[in-house]
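Tokens as discussed.
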């Protein structure tokens, strides 16, 4: 997809959540199928809707802004998961169009073409692996267990931090996730965490679904 000036838009397509989030990354191609299977149906939702309806989010077409890596978050802390993960600035794999999640399963990736740490509007997107055959559980292995009210903290490049509270945990078939909603650059500021979930297909070595957690600034 191109913007008004004809330049390619660095916006992840649906493939981003078909392959890249929660997969094992191998070789120069960058993406391979997920090859690990945790016990049970990972990400089974128990809280599937916000405690209150989220405001509508306006979406505008056009080229994405230049990446503002200087405003990228550097760490993500989730006390309920006993998680503190390094956050790396990532974009879109030019060969696959997928979200370029960091290869290390214990690290997570911030989408550098979207809102950053100090954003006052839009969705700050952070995605991470659920697991890998080689390295075991990923940073977001237990993301699907978060509940409304759980706290999440982002650390910024200047040492400051922003506190968020979970308002929703949802699970979608990868072919049905509303990407525009979760990658919006407008509307109320929120933090969006994404990983794989649902049943694991032993034939394709992929999870069927995506788990998406939404959090809003704590007041």
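Sequence:
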């Amino acid at each position: 997809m191109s913007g008004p000036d004809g330049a390619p838009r660095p916006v992840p397509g649906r493939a981003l959540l078909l392959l890249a989030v929660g997969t094992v990354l191998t070789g120069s191609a960058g993406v391979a199928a997920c090859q690990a299977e945790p016990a049970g149906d990972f990400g089974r939702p128990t809280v599937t809707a916000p405690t209150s309806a989220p405001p509508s989010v306006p979406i505008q077409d056009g080229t994405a802004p230049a990446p503002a890596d200087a405003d990228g978050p550097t760490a993500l802390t989730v006390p309920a998961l006993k998680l503190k993960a390094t956050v790396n600035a990532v974009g879109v794999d030019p060969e696959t169009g997928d979200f370029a999640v960091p290869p290390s399963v214990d690290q997570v990736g911030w989408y550098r073409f979207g809102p950053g740490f100090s954003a006052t509007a839009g969705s700050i997107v952070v995605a991470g692996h659920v697991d890998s055959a080689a390295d075991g559980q990923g940073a977001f292995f237990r993301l699907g267990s978060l509940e409304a009210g759980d706290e999440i903290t982002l650390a910024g490049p200047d040492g400051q931090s922003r506190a968020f509270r979970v308002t929703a945990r949802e699970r979608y078939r990868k072919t049905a996730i509303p990407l525009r909603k979760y990658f919006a650059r407008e509307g109320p500021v929120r933090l969006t965490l994404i990983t794989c979930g649902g049943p694991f297909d032993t034939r394709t070595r992929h999870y069927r679904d995506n788990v998406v957690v939404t959090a809003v600034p704590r007041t």
